[in-house]
Write a structure and sequence with these properties.
Strand order of the largest sheet: 2-5-1-6
Oligomer: single chain
InterPro entries: ActD (IPR021776)
CATH architecture of the largest domain: 2-Layer Sandwich
CATH class of the largest domain: Alpha Beta
Pfam families: ActD (PF11821)
Keywords: Membrane, Transmembrane, Transmembrane helix
Protein name: Quinol:cytochrome c oxidoreductase membrane protein
Order of helices and strands: EHEHHEEHEHE
Number of domains: 2
CATH topology of the largest domain: Alpha-Beta Plaits
Structural class: alpha+beta
Shape: rod-shaped
Helix content: 40-55%
Largest sheet: 4 strands, antiparallel
Number of strands: 6
Length: about 180
Amino acid sequence: MAEKVIYAMYDDDDVLKDGAKKLVAKGVKVADVFSPFPIHGIDPIIGVKQTRLGIMAFLYGLTGTALATLGMNYFMIHDWPMNIGGKPNDSYLDNVLAFIPITFEFTVLCAAHGMAITYLLLNKTLPGMPATNPDPRTTDDKFVMELRLSDNNQFSEGELMAMLNDTGVVEVDQKDIH
């Protein structure tokens, strides 16, 4: 079943934010906003929930720390003990200070890669996936607000268009999404 979606295009991000505030104050639910850069302060206006990416970063970093510790303990102490400068590596705890830079770097590496992969998976922007951007101009200098008629049942299509015209919109487009 097709769903009607209204795309309102703006020239300026501040005009879009003011328009979104007006619409939300009237009870209109904004589904999404497409812009060439992140718009500071738009998330609370349109009701986007805060992400848990920070928690995931902590867990990925913790995994990196554990893997680095286990790896160094195995490689440097048990598998191939090294005698550097006449100081043999007999226990991990005796040499833990020498392993701190490696542990730190591996923690940051795992956290960064884990967050990047999680970001791409959650946004469905992996290489080869079709783009969901409604208008290619939003990658250049335009801003688009998406309103779904199914989310705004209390308003007719004409009422939504009238409210949009009061927000400084430059162009309005309607599409049926399957």
